[in-house]
From TrEMBL:
Its EC number is 1.1.1.37. Residues 189-352 form the Lactate/malate dehydrogenase C-terminal domain. Belongs to the LDH/MDH superfamily. MDH type 1 family. Residues 46-187 form the Lactate/malate dehydrogenase N-terminal domain. GO terms for molecular function: L-malate dehydrogenase (NAD+) activity. GO terms for cellular component: chloroplast. InterPro entries: L-lactate/malate_DH (IPR001557), Lactate/malate_DH_C (IPR022383), Lactate/malate_DH_N (IPR001236), Lactate_DH/Glyco_Ohase_4_C (IPR015955), Malate_DH_AS (IPR001252), Malate_DH_type1 (IPR010097), NAD(P)-bd_dom_sf (IPR036291). GO terms for biological process: malate metabolic process; tricarboxylic acid cycle. It catalyses: (S)-malate + NAD(+) = oxaloacetate + NADH + H(+). Homodimer. This is Malate dehydrogenase. NAD(+) binds at G51, A52, A53, G54, G55, I56, G57, D77, N136, I159, S160, N161, M270. PROSITE patterns: MDH.
Amino acid sequence: MEQKTNQRIAKISGHLYPSNSQIMEDSSEVMMRANCRAKGGAPGFKVAILGAAGGIGQPLAMLMKMNPLVSVLHLYDVVNSPGVTADISHMDTGAVRGFLGQPQLESALTGMDLVIIPAGVPRKPGMTRDDLFKINAGIVKTLCEGIAKSCPRAIVNLISNPVNSTVPIAAEVFKKAGIYDPKRLLGVTMLDVVRANTFVAEVLGLDPREVDVPVVGGHAGVTILPLLSQVKPPSSFTQQEIEYLTDRIQNGGTEVVEAKAGTGSATLSMAYAAVKFADACLRGLRGDANVVECSFVSSQVTELPFFATKVRLGRSGAEEVFQLGPLNEYERIGLEKAKKELAESIQKGVSFIKK
Ligand SMILES: NC(=O)C1=CN([C@@H]2O[C@H](COP(=O)(O)OP(=O)(O)OC[C@H]3O[C@@H](n4cnc5c(N)ncnc54)[C@H](O)[C@@H]3O)[C@@H](O)[C@H]2O)C=CC1
Ligand SMILES: O=C([O-])CC(=O)C(=O)O
């Protein structure tokens, strides 16, 4: 009887840790919460964050909890998700539930409309994103197997690096499970766009909110290709400005890794970018017209099977993948370099599952 009451209270209070939660063990809390009156859930989308207790996961969870399009937020991690969930559950916005460890992955994912994945290790100075492959490839594989089983129709936003390889890994896992829908798998390259808007606005003396820079290719070094010839509002740059901006945008991640001096990589700007992108996906799911953002997706824009360009987000994910548009000579040379490195990273991801 007492256990049943506790379980009901756990649901009301937004926790799912029958043996783990301090709150569950505190009888005065139990009395207080027992008097809560459960109401019907608010309309909106169900969103899960996998890796929710991490450097990106925590601010991302906070910002998603503030998003009016989200009715239920599930926070999953292999450590520390009870504390993060308890903290976030006190925000006076939509519902949140926490899930800890592999046995709770299925419950974390069941019924989700959107799954955001920032799980995995970040870089330290001197490392490339590809150096993370060894650990993160296996993490992404396991999580995507969970998605295939528990919410095969969910839109997936994949943040874990190296994105150029983890997206192909996810695709192969979904193919193997027979549920692959290319429109629903989106690699998150939004931080490159956010950085490009910021750095270009600095050079032009504009408000970054007024600037739109398409960034295509992938998400590592030379595969990050800003198309400065297509900046909005239309702008011209000197060759020196083009070289400075391209280098800064391509190495923005490394700039943060070095500044953080061994304590991690971009987390706050990434959480901001992830929410900007997730919000666009949710607006697309809701049926809003003309929701367009850059993303690393299954693509026929080049000869490569995956490529980042602008995509139109709709009820079933990336419903339209836009072409590159006219490139100048500098961008055409950059594109060739990007494709060479991307081809290897994509193949590495595919082989990891097919081997
Ligand atoms: N796509 C992009 O633009 C960016 C990607 N990243 C990548 O995001 C990833 C996460 O970065 P941070 O949050 O800074 O790292 P972090 O180490 O602070 O957090 C990662 C979280 O993932 C969790 N985790 C590990 N294995 C897991 C599993 N099997 N299931 C669920 N959770 C698991 C950890 O417990 C930790 O809480 C890294 O791979 C990083 O390189 C980072 C910045 C930008
Ligand atoms: O640089 C890193 O390792 C993290 C990342 O992807 C970024 O900040 O763009």
